């Protein structure tokens, strides 16, 4: 995407012509959104889409009296991780088993087979816990600890993300 000041000025002139009220362009991972103010004719790019220095320069050059207030940036909030791991009734910290890849979670080797593990199942290092299908490849996820399955956090055939917690294990 062309990121020079002239390009952004051209977008502003298109809006000033009165034919359209909003332009949104996305190229090569960069998104620019320019919206005409409803009360004034000067348009200004929305702050959450400004990802390169040339756009920031335009904001600095637009007079404060003719520009509407910038929209507040809406940054998605990430879940704050609790510093303490879940604890069992016996006081032991539970071990989280994370997904090593993005894919689809399966509890059993086939639709008609019994699941590899259930809540309460004793597991040892090397036991298969589940399968994650990624790009038509079935990846067996093995346990790295000895313990008992305390909780299964994903439903069968549900998509999972990288590093998503799949199981909680109570260590022996």
Describe the structure.
The chain is mainly β. It has two domains: 5-61, no CATH class; 95-171, Beta Barrel (OB fold (Dihydrolipoamide Acetyltransferase, E2P)), CATH 2.40.50. 12% of the residues lie in helices and 31% in strands. The chain has two helices and eleven strands. The strands form three sheets. Strands 4-11-9-6 form a four-stranded antiparallel sheet, with no helix packed on it. Strand 2 (30-36) and strand 3 (43-45) form a beta hairpin.
**Helix share, percent:** 10-25%
Using the coordinates above, name the CATH class of the largest domain.
Mainly Beta
* Lateral arrangement of strands in the main beta sheet: 4-11-9-6
Tally of structural domains: 2
Quickly count the helices.
2
Strand proportion:
25-35%
Q: How confident is the prediction overall: mean pLDDT?
A: 75
Unreliable spans are 39-52, 62-84
* CATH H-tier superfamily of the largest domain: RNA polymerase II/Efflux pump adaptor protein, barrel-sandwich hybrid domain
**Tally of DSSP β-strands:** 11
Radius of gyration: 26 Å
> Largest sheet at a glance?
4 strands, antiparallel
CATH fold label of the largest domain: OB fold (Dihydrolipoamide Acetyltransferase, E2P)
What order do the helices and strands follow?
HEEEHEEEEEEEE
What is the CATH architecture term of the largest domain? Beta Barrel
How far apart the termini lie comes to 56 Å
């Amino acid at each position: 995407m062309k990121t020079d000041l002239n390009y952004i000025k051209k977008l502003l002139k298109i809006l000033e012509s009165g034919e359209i009220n909003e332009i949104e362009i996305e190229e090569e991972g960069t998104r620019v959104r320019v919206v005409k103010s409803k009360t004034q004719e000067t348009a200004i790019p929305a702050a959450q889409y400004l990802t390169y220095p040339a756009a920031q320069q335009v904001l600095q050059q637009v007079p404060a009296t003719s520009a509407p207030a910038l929209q507040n940036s809406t940054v998605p909030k990430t879940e704050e991780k609790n510093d303490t791991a879940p604890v069992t009734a016996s006081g032991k910290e539970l071990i989280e088993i994370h997904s090593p890849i993005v894919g689809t979670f399966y509890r059993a080797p086939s639709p008609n087979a019994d699941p590899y593990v259930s809540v309460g199942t004793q597991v040892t290092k090397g036991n298969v816990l589940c399968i994650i299908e990624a790009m038509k490849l079935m990846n067996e996820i093995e346990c790295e600890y000895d313990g008992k399955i305390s909780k299964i956090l994903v439903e069968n055939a549900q998509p999972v993300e990288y590093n998503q917690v799949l199981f909680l294990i109570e260590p022996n």
